[in-house]
Design brief:
This protein is mainly alpha-helical. It has one domain: Topoisomerase I, Chain A, domain 3 (Alpha-Beta Complex). It has helices spanning 8-20, 29-41, 45-50, 83-95, 109-122, 131-143, 147-154, 159-165, 170-184; strands spanning 56-58, 64-69, 76-80. It has a three-stranded antiparallel beta sheet, with no helix packed on it. It is globular.
Length: 191
Amino acid sequence: MTSRPITMEEFKNIVQAIMDGGYNFRPNPTIALLCQMQASCGLRINDCLRVRLKDIYKSEDNHYRIKVKEQKTGKWRDTIFYADLYFKLSEYCIEHGRKKDEPIFNLTSRAVSKYLKKVTEYLDLDGVGTHSFRKLYATEIFKNSDLLTVSMALMHSNINTTVRYLAKNPRLDSVLEECGSKLLNIEVTNK
């Protein structure tokens, strides 16, 4: 199944349902935190599951950053990481006895996907999977930037991959429409 991008409202509803539980799933704050992490830094689920607290560091300019090697591409990714999320993950590690050099989450992507399927069925949301959180990240960046910035943030080698992420995004439609309109309506004079 190809995951679709989710809206910010759907994201909030998903995280809330995960925290509250439903008729066929128990509350799971661990998966809620994992979803928040994925949506806020745009990592793929398998990369999130491999993150250790020691992969997050404070840079010289006083920002938190995360440095991980992407499992799918083998590329190193070094990007901004939100301080609030770092503190939540630190608390989580203390509460769950996780050491700095151990993966923060003791889950499999399959277990997360199965749980998320129950949540999205409960919320009557179709086409939502773990990759939807990465697509939400892309959509939110695109609201305040351009296609190239989104592509760089996701570390896509090909911008066409980024376009597919944003294919059903109203802003992309309007940007493409405006561009097409400008190109179509140029004034040409005959000599």
